[in-house]
What we know:
The chain has helices at 16-29, 37-43, 48-55, 61-82, 84-87, 94-102, 117-126, 149-158, 172-181, 211-222; strands spanning 2-6, 107-112, 135-137, 165-169, 184-188, 203-205. With 224 residues, it is an alpha/beta fold.
Amino acid sequence: xxxxxxxxxxxxxxxxxxxxxxxxxxxxxxxxxxxxxxxxxxxxxxxxxxxxxxxxxxxxxxxxxxxxxxxxxxxxxxxxxxxxxxxxxxxxxxxxxxxxxxxxxxxxxxxxxxxxxxxxxxxxxxxxxxxxxxxxxxxxxxxxxxxxxxxxxxxxxxxxxxxxxxxxxxxxxxxxxxxxxxxxxxxxxxxxxxxxxxxxxxxxxxxxxxxxxxxxxxxxxxxx
Length: 224
């Protein structure tokens, strides 16, 4: 059996607008100037309790804690206003790629994301993806990426070895997590980190149409 584990934000769904709006709201509530778009997208993938102190290094723990909650509240409000399927649309080809993989008996799908459990559940429900991911690892239960904890747990859940596991993501945090877990990594060029930051990936794809070939290349290499 082989495990294929997906990141979510910037990989499966484009949640950029809501991430930026929610972060701006959290900072403004503290009387702080919002960080730049590049700065915010640069920390996507980290858990909020790690990401916000990086964006607000001059703020104390109490202020960062308030901003974490402010971000969560703002994000939930935006999702409720528009619906998760609208505020975080699937990237082109994502649904079809998941369907193709799910139909292969030897492939088991999972998620390893910096999102909360509540956020992931809402997203899966909105996009009709219930039953797609046999393991769902979220920030509530693990240290932030690139700590390999969530990927290691995903592999345990699926009963697959690191040598039979591929992580798919858009950030260097995903790549470093995969490396730390001993798994393979496919980077996607359409996400929130520049493709140049994914230079150590086993493959980088420019569309979901290229995913199957990239996986086959990795499996072939793994089998010698």
